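Lab notes, practical 5.
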Amino acid sequence: MAEIKNKTAIKILKAATQLFAEQGYDGAKMDDLCARTGANKASIYYHFKDKANLYEVVLTRLFKSIVDQVITQVDAQQEVVAKLDALIETFAKTTYQNKQMPATLMREIASGGTHMPVPARAQMQRLLQCLKQILKAGEQANLFHTANPLTIHFMIIGSICFFNTSEPMRLSIDSDIKVDPGLDEAIQEISTLVRNALLKA
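Output from the prediction step:
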């Protein structure tokens, strides 16, 4: 994907990323985007030909940024279990810092992927492919049981995305006892559960 350098286009992208995360594709209105950016519709459509194109650029850039970081950290590890841990930890931390990603992904999943752009979907396929390679290496090393990669993918991505997107609701619960795990605690718990599901005794 070509690098976007125009300041107005970057401003539009940042505001659109937040707007789509909050409202979804159908709920996001270009009038709201104009109000948030100070740009008129003519300016928005000069940089992005229509709403669908803007959504495609937003999601693809957002997803690619996360997946690139995950793959970089996975590739930096030598041992297969360390690669698995790196995938979980990096995805959790990068999506926690960029909560628009899990928010938009969860909205798309809930709607059956009605508006999910093909290039953005391809980024999630890259993430799944990375996991498949880890699982295959673990099986070949006689470390992992044979498992359906998509099921493990759902365990990891689903748990982390739900953890991130449900945080405001969880924090609003009034309780004298701490029941809500922090990010590091959640990462450790998810990693342990996934390892326990895969590792041979």
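Observations recorded by the TA: The mean pLDDT is 94. The chain has ten helices and no strands.
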